[in-house]
Design goal:
This protein is α/β, with parallel strands linked by helices. The protein has 8 helices and 10 strands. Helix 3 packs parallel to helix 5 and helix 4 crosses helix 5.
């Protein structure tokens, strides 16, 4: 299996000053990679850069062999890379739960029977079947996150980028979502990039990227990366 994401010295910035500073990495097909680091460090920016929502100012980025900086490639890139935002209200497009989950498969032009099958299966996977006919506005924040995840599962992309998708979910549900992610990677060969602050989620991944102040400061075995980051943080406190 080869790399499905290739980033070489990618840089971007916002007017606020937050952005990415010459980050380079490759993501192998079928891997489970966690991305962590302090708030405001650039993790969510990276997620949006990967599917062209935030343009590059420097460097090169390929997703499934397609140049992200070429706007003509973006529709195909977004078929291959599904992104779940940190705030579910920024992603939900329909009033009813099952309609929202069905939105992606419908846009692929799939037959109605296939759309219904994918929608039902995705809702079952995240434990939201009983809410299929419910109004999205009646759901809790955590339930909305599960609906957004179901929407990406129904879409069935090759790569899933999940930005803090368990932030509003209780510990039992978080563990369930983690098991779903591992199953997607191990059984279906889907590549998953999970942005998270939770140690349990970081340690469950095959690899951990640590981003701070827009830079990739560590990349490797999750336990070793976290240990180094914690030791460095303790060193800063002792020197303060």
């Amino acid at each position: 299996m080869g790399a499905v994401i290739k980033a070489q010295n990618i840089s971007t910035s916002y007017r606020t000053g937050f952005g990415l500073k010459e980050i380079s990495f490759e993501i192998e097909e079928g891997s489970f990679v966690c991305i962590t680091g302090p708030n405001g460090g650039g993790k969510s920016t990276l997620a949006k850069v990967l599917n062209g929502l935030v343009p590059l100012e420097g460097g090169s980025l390929e997703v499934c062999g397609l140049d992200v900086s070429d706007v003509h490639n973006l529709p195909e890139i977004r078929k291959n890379l599904g992104l779940v935002f940190q705030n579910p209200d920024n992603q939900i497009v329909s009033v009813i739960v099952e309609e929202d989950v069905a939105f992606g498969p419908c846009n692929l032009g799939l037959p109605l029977d296939e759309v219904k099958k994918r929608t039902a299966r995705a809702l079952e996977m995240v434990g939201m079947t009983e809410y299929a006919a419910s109004a999205v506005s009646s759901l809790s924040g955590g339930q909305k996150q599960l609906v957004c995840l179901a929407g990406i599962l129904a879409f069935r992309p090759k790569i899933m980028v999940l930005d803090e998708i368990t932030s509003m979910i209780d510990p039992v549900e978080r563990n369930k979502i983690l098991q779903i992610i591992k199953g997607l990677v191990e059984e279906q060969g889907i590549t998953v990039l999970l942005i998270s602050h939770r140690f349990s989620e970081c340690l469950a991944a095959d690899r951990l990227l640590y981003i701070e102040n827009g830079s990739l400061v560590a990349d490797g075995n999750p336990r070793q990366v976290l240990s180094a980051a914690l030791n460095e943080d303790e060193g800063r406190k002792s020197n303060a």
